[in-house]
Amino acid sequence: MVAIINRGENLIGALSYNQLKVDKESGQVLSTQKIIEAPDGTYSIAQLSRSFELYLLANRRTEKPVLHISLNPDPRDKVSDNDFRTIAEDYMQEMGYGEQPFVVFKHTDIERAHIHIVSVCVDEEGRKISDKFEKRRSMDVCRALEKKYSLVVATEHKQSLQSHAFSPINYKAGDVKSQMASVLRHLPNDYQFQSFGAYNALLSLFNVTAEEVKGEYNGIPKHGIVYFALNEQGDKASNPFKASLFGKTAGYAELQSHYGQNRIKLKDNPSKASVKDKIELAMRTTENETEFKKQLMERGINTVVLRNGEGRIYGMTFIDHESRCVWNGSELGKNFSANVFNDWWNNGNKTERPVQEIASKNTAPVSGEINQPHELFDFLGKEDMSYSLQENNLIEAFGGLLPETHGEDYEEEAFVNRMKRKVKRRKL
C-alpha cells in the first residue's frame, strides 16, 4: 500500500474534488469522525467544511493546515469497505491524527479502488500536529497495515528502479544521447497516444522533440524520425539523433502501429470520464491559463498548448499520468477543443458552463452555515500549492521525474480554487 500525503490551505477544494466523485457515482463517503451529519444521513460540502471550521479559525501559524491523504492498495488487493474504514482509522491513529475530525472517501473511478482522507493538521487549540519524519513513519505504518490486513507489500526498491528511466533531458549535462535513450526506449510502451502530435506533446515534458523525415531512396519512399534535445525555451539544443539509435519503439513504423492500437484503446478508456471531470472543474474554477495548468498539474495532468506565430491556440493536449493516456482536447469533446481555449485565453470569452450544485439541497441548513459554494470559497481562500512550478518545465512539478514512482498508485492531490484571499486567522 502506498500513502500520499499533501497539505494546503484550501479545504473546500479538497472536499469538492472528492464530492465530485460521489456526484458522478464513482465514489462514496465511507466513514467519518467528528463530522456533522444531516438527519437523513447525507453529507454536503457545507456540512463537512463546518466540521473543520473551529480548527481552522484556531490555527496559529500553520500555513497549510488542510490534510489530504490517499491510501492506495496494490491493484491485486481486494479490500472490503469495512477493511478500508479500519485501515483509515488505524493509519490516522498511528500518524498522530487519531483525535482529529476527518472524512474518508472511497474512489472507484479506476480499476484500483482506493481511499482519500480529508482532515486538518492543527488541533483544537490551533497547534500544528508534528509531521517530523513523516515520510519514514508513513512507510512504517503502511508496512504494518499490509501485514495486519494481508495486503500486497509495496516495495520502494521496485519503484525507484521504475522511475530511473524517466528523467527529463538536461542538454547542459552532456551525453545527450544516453539521456534521450533512457526516455525513448521506454516512453512509447508506457503511454497511450494516437497521433504524432500527441507523442510530441508527451516528449516535450522531457525536453525532447521529434520530427518526421520523408524522402526517396532508389525510387522507394522512405519515412523516418529524428529527435532533438530542447533547452529551457523549448528551442532545439542538440544535433539530430536518428530513431534507429534508440531501438524499434522510437522508430516510424513502430509508432504508426502504436497509434492504430491506441485509437481503439483510448476510445473507451475507463479513465476518460475522470480526466474530463478534472478539466471541466479546472475550467469552472480558474481565471487564466496559468491557474488552469497549475490546477490540472496538481492532479497529475499536464497541459500542452500549441500556438502559431500570431499566438493563436491551435492545439490542446492533456497528458494524464495516472492512466498513462494522452488526449487531444477535441478527442475528449468539443468543449475542450483549441478554439474554446483560444476564445478564453486570447479573446477573454470564457464559456460559462453551469456550476454543479455541490451543497446538498435536501440538507436542512445549520444555523449560521454557509451554503453557497462561492461563499465557502470566499471564507477559506485559495490554496498555496505545495509544488514549486515553472511553466516552461512542467515536469518539475513531479520532482524532476515522471510520476512512475507512484505507478498505478498515483492519485489526484489537487486542492482546487480560484479565490486568492488567504484564510483569515483569529487573533490570539
Automatic annotation (TrEMBL):
Designated name of the protein: Relaxase
Family annotation (NCBIfam families): Bacteroid_MobB
Annotated ranges, domain MobA/VirD2-like nuclease: 43-151
Organism: Flavobacterium cupreum
